[in-house]
Amino acid sequence: MTAYLDNSATTKPCKECADAVTEMLLNNWGNPSSLHNLGINAMKEVITARTVIADSLGVSREEIVFTSGGTEANNLAIFGAVKARKRLGGRIVTTAIEHESVLQSAQELEKQGFEVIYLKPDKNGNITKEQLFDAVDKNTILISMMYINNEVGTVMPVESIKRAVKKAGSPALIHIDCVQAYGKVSINAKKLGADLITVSAHKIHGPKGIGALYVNKEANLTDQNFAQIFGGEQEKKIRPGTESSPLIAGFGAAVKALPAINEQKKLIAELNCYAREQLGKIAGLRFNNDESASPYIINIYIPTFMRSQTILQELSSNYSVYVSNGSACAKGKKSHVLSAMGLDDETLDKSIRISFCRYNTKENVDLLVSALKDLINKHPLEKI
Hints:
About 40% of the residues lie in helices and about 15% in strands. It is an alpha/beta fold. The strands form three sheets. The chain has a seven-stranded mixed β-sheet, sandwiched between helices. A three-stranded antiparallel β-sheet has the order 9-10-12. Strands 1-11 form a two-stranded parallel ribbon.
């Protein structure tokens, strides 16, 4: 038996996704931009997927731009928004616990002279709406915030961003990274007041290498704001090049296959509760996130002399349990999220992330707990 509990890094593609990708590769392989029947048939599937994704966000299909994934979509959103609003101010508001694709983009903009405010979390990773209201002023041109944090599952105050902008009389555009929220909570772009939303397929049992950016048509953003690649008319010139119709179709199929969000969240919450109960019985183990976090993510400190990377390798090699020590994009570096939360080096060195999906079971949790108990008994903290 195996326990794959690293679903915040990526998910196993569902059958519907795999079938759609295979169909496009073998039987509907025309270039979607070609004007003959093979191309038109491929484009129909692209349009279908675009419509499905748009409907899931409560927007029109013309507002969806396909990208290679969340990282590219975040980059397009941030640099595009700043380019569009730079004459109106120079402040950018984000948080210290964003995905690296947002943080590194913000750091690059700092080098260009923009002021970036990084909201700091508390010890559980929470950021308050009061912090947001204090940071947004008339000079703010962009607010970029993730809906759910990818390492500790913090639910961010994204629903307060629109009010903060209005109160400050700010010209800011609102970008919400919904990569970890999409398919797990209800997202309506209009209700959120979002101008830009990032989503990704491989977090919802779709294929890797495909994501999407919602661009609000009412925000009066042009393709010139976003264009970083040139050479084609595809995706409104924002992201030119031959459309990856197999991946796009797989993305659409994965969205269609999503279960009812509230029902699924209830099941995951029950699994989370069970996991916390069983993990809490392990002496010395500590939770790095509280119960207000997304039920899809648990972050824990392991009381052993081994560092997290070794813990992961041991769990994988000897117990067939798969977890992570943070964002896969960090490639094993210490978590900037836990560091921003003010946790000590000992905790940073020995923490792991457990992340669930709809295919996980209590048996998966039992295998994880059994493996951790055995690992701690073999390699206790006292050996340091």
